[in-house]
Amino acid sequence: ARSMALVKVNLRAVTSWVGIARLFAIVLSCLAFSLVASTGEYKNTYGTWCMFTWCFCFAVTLVVLLLELLELYPKLPISWDDFTSAFSMLAALMIFTTSVVYPSTSIGSPCRSHCAEKAVATTASCLCFLAYALEVGLTRAKPGDISSFLSTIPGLLKVFEVYVACLIFSLLDNFGSVPGLQWCVAVYSICFIITLLIIIFTIGRCLAYIPCPLERMLVGYSALALVMYITATVLWPYYNFHLKKRPNPCNSDCPWNKQLGVTFLTIFNLIAYLVDLVYSTKMVFIRTP
Hints:
- This protein is mostly helical and about 290 residues long.
- It has 2 domains: about 5-145; about 150-289, no CATH class.
- It has helices at about 1-5, 10-15, 15-40, 45-70, 80-105, 115-140, 155-170, 180-205, 215-240, 255-285.
- Helix 3 runs antiparallel to helix 4 (about 45-70), helix 4 packs antiparallel against helix 5 (about 80-105) and helix 5 packs antiparallel against helix 6.
- The longest helix is centred in the C-terminal third of the chain and has 31 residues, at about 255-285.
- The chain is flat.
- The N and C termini lie far apart (about 50 Å).
């Protein structure tokens, strides 16, 4: 009887709106990778990435749900709210990317084989993204609440910035020995490492041990990262596209297309760091009553 008393079941983990969103995410991601696996057509680079995304999000969300259902998460030496907020944001970004990449690379025009399975898998992936987006919206911190940093707008943006940097790294091909392009790669790398460390230290509850005014330091870092990304936004397209025409033909593996993709992703991260700086400054220097 004593051992039975130690096992608690928290039904709110599956009956609350957040729990329901997680259940939908589990079912939909499982449906997506099961259908794609049944086709056997996922052995290329993009197909492998899509399968990894669905399986990874399915497994982690299932573990999160079980830990909350059995109330075991307080025993973990991490900030649970920060971890779940960061993961739901990451999962939403990964599933969104997969929902775009999979149909564009695996469903031809016209579709030649396993059309129904691929169409349903794409639909399930899109709905799975909506489930994770709903979870992000439901768990986002209310204005003035900073108890869980990664559930605030600056915290969620840091997950976005890290993910976009990963996409940039996947597109970097040959930037040669041009100092301007080497500086851009240094900007992407430095900002990625520092932002990732902020996320890891937040989840691991290590930020309290840093002997300096942390909130002001984060505002200063956001300002520095913004300035660095402004330089990359100018230098990357200048050195890659100045007096250079798009080759014809130019497919998905064409270096020109990859450089264009890096340009757009750099702009996305520039905007993210700008909004991050605005919200961080508001949180630190403009106190709400």
